[in-house]
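Final report, Chapter 2: Outcomes

The project's central promise was a pipeline that accepts a single protein chain and returns its three-dimensional structure in a standardized token representation, suitable for archiving and comparison. That pipeline is now operational. To close this chapter, we reproduce one record exactly as it appears in the project archive, with the input sequence first and the structure output second.
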Amino acid sequence: MANNQHQALWSHCLQLIRQNVSEQQYKTWFEPIVFESFSEADATLLVQVPSHYFCEYLEQHFVRLMYWALTNSFKTNIRLQYRVVVDKEHGQKTIEGSNGPAPIDNPAPATRVNKSPTVLDAAPHTDLNPQLDIHKSFQTYIEGDSNKLPRTVGLSIAEHPGRSTFNPFFIYGPSGCGKTHLVNAIGLRCKELYPQKRVLYISARLFQVQFTDASRQNTVNDFIQFYQTIDVLIIDDVQEWATAEKTVATFFYIFDHLFRLGKQIILASDRPPVDLHWLKDRMLTRFSCGLIAELEKPNAQLCIDILNAKCRRDGLKIPADVIAYIAETANGSVRDLEGVVNSLLAYSVVYNSNIDMRLAERIIKRAVKVDNKPLTVDDILEKVCEHYNVSQQNVFSKSRKRDYVQVRQISMYLAQKYTKMPASRIGQLIGNRDHSTVIHSCTTIEKRLKADKAFFEELSHIERSFKLKD
């Protein structure tokens, strides 16, 4: 067979590869490969690549796909060799053999024996279950002042994934404010507009479990390669990685790869990146390249709008005064709102009773714990100042007097312990300090608690006055 016929087979091989990788991956890693020759005597294909790194990357990430395409194009088992350009100026080259897997007829995902298949069992070129909740869409995500910016940005990302300036997109806010709903809505809309894209939603905890499982089975490379095929990666509750150093390091490797290829990355957390103390500076820098958006708890009016929308969607009839009461007492949590409405519906059906204010009060008392509302920064400040007989005005001042500084630091420490506010917000509420002051204060108090037994007892006394358990 003439050399030009072998080159035609190589071109066919490239066509197969192109169908199974993104356009950017193809242009980056396969267009620069130059066909040199094919030896029929030992079925060896020789191609030229620009560098040793290029060769190593192909072997690490695409060797199985390449062997599959070669076998299907040349209709025989192929031995692959690379001619590597080591010195362009002097034209020096060297030949390296492929260390790839044995040739196969069809690539197949490596499934785990006697275990249910997971997303990791999906081959790069096949469809993937995005693990999205179809009920959490933009149609059911009610817009209000607290979520207008994140919602608008999320919709823009869904329409142009990876191509906007909002990459990565980092959303943070307290529990129950609608973070999970919003990231699901982005994924669903993106999948609707771009069915061919590989979209995946996963919790940080499950990602960590998968990585731990891969480490034990010595399949970390497969784990990484799978996630490097994702076009839109959505990870929820990343604050869960506080003690998962190896998971974070592996995620950064995946993150960096996807980011360089222009893939969309969406992360959700209950606090901003600067308060995730386990994050390395290099990751904070990457996050700053995109958009960091705060999702606040819905106000009373938005809660009313959410409840009315749910009633229309589910065909419920709840009096306006009951809806207003639920909105005002549900602590601004969307989860609490939905839980109360579901409980009202269940009680009314089981006991064949009307949904009225009396029933709503009973449900909320049990479900939302109105009698035990969460502590606020103001509550903490009031108790600490009262204990040390110091005014809040003095605490807020710039005075470095020891008594004032101590009350300020204790208040910041307890605020971080008992509220879910980010350090930046706590600092604003306690004397308009920055987040670094809050972090320093917490560290100082923690060290003192370990070394000073009397101080430990004193602080415990203050905490008991809150009627809260540690």
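Archive annotation: Confidence is low (pLDDT under 50) at residues 102-117, 121-125.
This record, like all others produced under the grant, will remain available to the consortium after the project formally closes.
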